[in-house]
Amino acid sequence: MAGQSESNPASAWSWPFWGGEMWRPIVQPLAPQTLTQPIQPGWTFGNVITVTERNSSSPETEREIVAEESYGRQLGRMLAALAVLIEERPETGETPKALEDLLELRDRIERIKLRTAAERLERIECDLARLKAELPDDYYRIAARLARDADAAPDESA
Fold this sequence. Notes:
Number of helices: 5
Radius of gyration: 31 Å
Largest sheet: none
Order of helices and strands: HHHHH
Distance between the termini: 90 Å
Helix content: 55-70%
């Protein structure tokens, strides 16, 4: 084609820029100035809790508290304290369903904690195997440190 660049044969067809600046007044107002679109609408990744002046008298204080003591840790400690009180409760016959449900919740949470701890250890085991294969010097340095730390730990069976 006459006037078409040898290095870019498609340049004659690159619409809407074909014709130069004449298209800018038509195309630019139609394009959004900013574009924000959730990848999966309605999904939340991680725990998201919005604290504002509408639901807290001091959102700054709450942010500081949660930064140091997560809601999960706070709820876990309350659950543990309530479980102690429930278990120390005098036997008066049947335990109310709400209290049984709370103890079952505690047990399910403990099973989740154990399962996720086992999963983390499996990932560590895989990472160590990869490290041994790809960076053996680092593997042996870390393995030696782990062995020293294991030997230094008090014996819990005594």
